[in-house]
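HOLO CASE FILE
Compound: magnesium ion
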Amino acid sequence: MSAPAGDELEILRELEKKVLWLASWTIHHANHLRENSDGLKVGGHQASSASLAAIMTALYFHVLKPEDRVAVKPHASPVFHAIQYLLGAQTREKLEAFRAYGGAQSYPSRTKDIDDVDFSTGSVGLGVAQTLFASLVQDYVRAHGWGLERPEGRMIALVGDAELDEGNVFEALLEGWKQGLRNCWWIIDYNRQSLDAVVREDLWARYEELFRAFGWDVVILKYGSLMRRAFGEPGGERLREWIDRCPNSLYSALVFQGGAAWRKRLLDDIGDQGPVTRLIESRSDDELSRLMNNLAGHDLPSLIEAFEAVDHDRPVCFICYTIKGVGLPFAGHKDNHAGLMTPAQMEKFRAAMAVRPGHEWDKFEGLALPPETIEAFLERVPFAARGPRRFKAPPLEVPEALPVAIQPAMATQTGFGALLNELGRQRVPLTERIVTASPDVTVSTNLGPWVNRRGLFAREAMADTFKDERIPSTFHWEFSGKGQHIELGIAEMNLFLLLSALGLSHTIFGERLLPIGTLYDPFIERGLDALNYACYQDARFILAATPSGITLAPEGGAHQSIATPLIGLAQDGLAAFEPAFVDELAVIFAWALAYMQKDGDAAPSERSWLRDETGGSVYLRLSTRAIEQPKREMNAELRQAIIDGGYWLRRPGPNCQAVIAYTGAVAPEAIHAVGLIAEDRRDVGLLAVTSADRLNAGWTAAQRARERGLVHARSHIERLLADVPAHCGIVTVVDGHPATLAWLGGVAGHRVRPLGVEHFGQTGSIADLYRHYGIDANAIVAAAQVVVPGRPIRHLRALP
Ligand SMILES: Cc1ncc(C[n+]2csc(CCOP(=O)(O)OP(=O)(O)O)c2C)c(N)n1
Ligand SMILES: [Mg+2]
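Model generated. C-alpha cells follow.
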C-alpha cells in the first residue's frame, strides 16, 4: 500500500471526523437518549476513543490488510464499532444499544459482537499479549506446512499507555524474544493519561529501552505534520525545545484550556519579541490550539508514513503521542476519563460537525465530500476486501477409547503422561494437530515421553547438545519447525495466553490445533485472569493441572491448591474433571479431544442438560498420588456416566442410610470408609464424582428447564440420587474446598456433611495430612456417624 494521494488523504480526514462523531454520539446516545439507560456513566469511552480515532482511521481505512488481526484497546470500542458501521459490518441498532442488552459491547468482544472482532479486550494488558502469542501461533501453523495458501498477517495491538503497567505484558515480551517473535506491532496510544491520572514523565524513554532490549524496533511518533512545518519556521526550534521540556501535566492542562492559554504560556516562557513571538502571533487562538494538538498520533500523514515505512517482519513498537479526548471539550483534562459531554457541549460539537438533528447516524452527514466519493472509497478499503475474517476448520476424528496400559497402582498424572505417549506413537491427523505447552514443568507433569516422540517447536532447528555429546539423558530436547511442544518460561500468564492463541487457530488462521497445556494446579490462580480471558474468547484447549490438592504432601503448604475445584465449578467455558482412576481419565481425555472441536447448537441436551454440542475447553485436575486401580471393563453406560460427571461405584441398596460421595485422589479413603461404615449402617452407597462441575451444571439447567414448564427434565445427578431414601445422609469428600460437593444435599434434600481442605500450610505424608485436615477414612466415618443417626459405628477410632 502506498502513501495516500492528496484526495485520498482528504477522504481519510473526513472519515476520521466521522469516526470521532459516531463514537462520541454512540456514547452520548447511550447516556442521555436511550430509554432505560440507567444513568450509564460511560464517559471514559469518549475521551479514550478520541485518543485513538486518527490511529484507527489510518489503520482500518488504509494500512490494514485482510490477513492482519487487531486487538483494540478496551475503551476504544466505540471507535471500532463506528469504523465497522461505516464498512457495513455493524448495524445502527447495535450502536443505538451500545452497552445495552444485545447491543454493541462496551469492550470489543469476539464472542458477543457481530462486527468481526479479532481479539476481545477488557482486562487491560491481556489483548496486547494475545497478539504476540497469535504471531507465534501463526509461525507454528506455517512451519508445519499448513495455511501456506494464505498470506502472513501482522498481529497488531492498539495499546493504552497505562496497559503497560500490567506485568503480563512484559512476561510476554520476554517470551516473544525467546521464541523469535515476528509480524507483531504494538501501537501505543501515548496520551500520558490513565483512568485516575496523568502518568509519570518520560515513560516513553523507559518503554523505548525496554522494547529495544527485547529485540523490537521502536518508532516514536511525536510531532504531527503541522508541528514539523512550524519547526521549520524561524523560531521553530525554540518551540520544539519547549514542547520537549514541557511536563505532561502542564501540556494536558494547556490542551484543555485552549488557544489563549497556549499563547500566554508560550509567550511568557519563550516569547522573544523576535521570530518565536512572530511564529506564535501569526496564528489565531484556534490555529495555535490546532498546532499544539497536532501530535503525531492525531496526524494521518505522519501515522500512515510511519506504518507504511515498515518493510520487514521484526516486531515494532510505535509510541504515538496523543491527547486523551482530543477534539472534545474535555481534551487533556486529567479527570476526563469519567468525563462525558453535556447535552449543551454535544450541541456545539454537532454544529462543528455539521450534523443535523435526526441525521446523527447518517454515514455521510456533514462531510465535505460527496457521499459517492466516500462510498466508492469504502468499497475499496483493503481491510474489508475479503469479507468475513473468521475461518472454520473441520473437526478431526477422535476414537472413542484411547489406549493406555493401566498398572495395578497408578496416579492420574502418570496415566495422563502414558495416554499422551500412546497418542504420540500414532501418526494420524488427530495426533499431528496436538500441540502441547508447559511453563517449565514439562517433565514434572509427565509430558516427557510425548516430547521425546514429537520434539520441541522452534522456527529454527536446534540440536540437543547432550544427545550429540552422547551424554545419557532420559529426555531429548530437539527443536525444529516440526516439533509439537512449545516450551515456555515459568510465567503461567503466558501459558494461558498461548493456549488462548493456539485455541483460536481454527478460526483465526483456518487451521485446527488441539492445544494441551500442563501446569501445577495451584498456579492456575497465578494466571487466572488470562484463563478467564481465553475462555471468554472461546479458545479451545485442554488444561492438565497436576499435582493438585495436598497429595503432593511433602512438598508443602505453599503448593496446596484448595480453591481450584471451585474455579473448575465456576469458570464459564471450561468443563472441569477430577478423575480418580486412569480408565476414567482415558474416557474423559478422548471425550475432551472431541468436545474441544464442537461448535454446535447452544441448546442443552435433553438427556444431560449439558451443552455438549456447543463445546468448550476442558480442565483435568490430576494427582501424583498412586492409587489402586479397579479391574473392570469399560462399557458404554459407564463411559457416559463418567463424562456426565459421576456413577455409583457401589450402588446404594433400598434401605440405604449413608452415601459417601468423593472426587479424585481421595477415592481409597472413601472406599475404605464405606467398608467400615457398612458394618453398622445399611446399604451404604459410594458415589464416584468425576466432574462436580458437570453434575452441577446439568442440575442447574434441568431445574431451569422445569421452571419453564418442561416437567420431565432430569439431570444426571437427579437420576443418580432419585432412589436414595430421604432419610439417608451424604458425606462428601474432596482434596480441595468442601463447598465443591456440598451442594449435593440440595439436589434431593439429603442431609450433607461436606469434608475437604480449608487451610494451608502443613507438610507431611499424605496420611498425616489427610488426618490433619480431616479427609481420611476415619474422618469420613466420623462424619457419617453424625450425619446418619444410629448406633455408634464400631470401627470409628478416636480422632487424634
Ligand atoms: C486488569 C484491569 N484493571 C483495571 C481496569 C480498569 N481500567 C479500565 S481503563 C483503565 C486505564 C486505561 O488507561 P490507558 O490504558 O492509558 O487508556 P486511556 O484511558 O488513556 O485511553 C483502567 C485502570 C481494567 N479494565 N483492567
Ligand atoms: Mg492512556
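CASE NOTES: Residues 6-33 form the longest helix (28 residues). Residues 160-162, 189, 191, 193-194, 324 surround magnesium ion (ligand 2) (CB under 6 Å).
CLOSED: yes
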